[in-house]
Amino acid sequence: MKMKILLVLEYIFLISLRVFLDVPLMMLLVMFLPLLFFALTRDKANTIRVMICALAILEVLPILLSSIPLIISLVLNDESLRRMRRWKLIVFTGIDGSGKSTHAKETALWLKGLGVPVTYYHFFRHPLVTLFSLAKRKIVRVSEDEVRTYSPGFRLHLRRGILPKIRPIAQYIDNWAYIGLRLLFHMLKGEWVIADRYFYDYYIRFKCLGYPMPRPLEKVYLRLVPRPHLLIVFDVDPKISFQRRGAEHPLWYYYKARKAFFNLAKRLHAPILNTERDFDVVQEDINNIIRTHLLGPKEK
To answer: Are 100 and 235 in contact, with CB atoms under 8 Å apart?
Structure first.
């Protein structure tokens, strides 16, 4: 209650100064008030609330809308902010058949045993793109050869068709709708998320299959996504992956994907985990990586 009264007083003080201060002084005040509050209290969560409320002084917001920062700062209590700060995103990525799903489920169970609120997701669903593809087949007549992924007709369609140029962009939007909303939901609850596959897997799949992936679109897939707190790239010999997946893809696809995931690990500074070893040995390596990078003293 005391914090809410303080925020209201801050808002009244700032609004009264809007008439007298120019833009540089306003910006200075927006930075100074949160710093002063933090120096006096060392309360990170409530400092964020003070900073949000301070935005009311900026002339970018009309006077009628200046109460929005105050409302947001009042609604966001310190406990909800602390919950959001506890949220973590762990992403397991790598070539198919490298054990991502099995280890993701086992890791979720291990974290739950430590008292960490965690949810597991298999993020290889694309509801919007699927609906679009079904609608397209009803409207446009598509040959069977064009539908089969590795057929000559499919390769020709990738080179000449318009839709293959749109597909990666549509998938990116679909990912934000499906993955992004779920991450936001768990972030607000302060729950960890273990993601089996992510935006990166779609990017590499499109690239390996030959879809048009210009450099700006590559950067969008790699940079304009919620950054994982921990990314682990799973690796296995492509021949083993080929056998495990029942020849779902040609052998060359696994070699090409493996190289792409190595490049991804290098660009995003992610550890590469060899999953050809015994399951328990690999899982212990995963647990140790999480202990080192994410777990606090109490959870360890």
So the answer is: no
Q: Is 127 helix (H, G, I), strand (E, B) or coil?
A: helix
Every domain of the chain and the residues it spans: 2-83, 87-293
Cα–Cα separations (whole angstroms), residue 154 to 99, 147, 157, 225, 256: 29, 6, 5, 29, 18
Q: Angle of helix 2-17 relative to helix 67-75, nearest 10 degrees?
A: 170
Query: What superfamily would CATH give domain 87-293?
Result: P-loop containing nucleotide triphosphate hydrolases (3.40.50.300)
Lowest mean pLDDT among 153-167, 246-260, 283-297: 153-167
Q: CB atoms < 10 A from the CB of 194, how many?
A: 24
- The number of C-alpha atoms within 13 Å of 98 and in the hemisphere containing its C-beta is 24
Token pair for 51: 């900073």
- Residue closest to 107 by CA, chosen among 298, 295, 296: 295
pLDDT, tens digit, 9 for 90 and up, residues 55-70: 877 766 666 677 788 8
Whole-angstrom Cα Rg for the chain: 24
CA separation for the pair 162, 101 (Å, rounded): 34
pLDDT digits (tens, 9 = 90+) for 194-231: 999 999 999 999 999 988 888 899 899 998 999 999 99
| More confident site: 28 or 175 | 175
Q: Among 4, 13, 18, which residue's Cα sits nearest to residue 63?
A: 18
Burial 214-238 (b: 16+ CB within 10 A, else e): eeebeebbeeebbebebbbbbbbbb
In DSSP notation, 174-210 reads HHIIIIIHHHHHHHHHT-EEEEES-HHHHHHHHHHHT
Round to whole Å and give the CA distance between 169 and 206: 11
**Residue 273's Cα: distance from chain center in Å?**
21
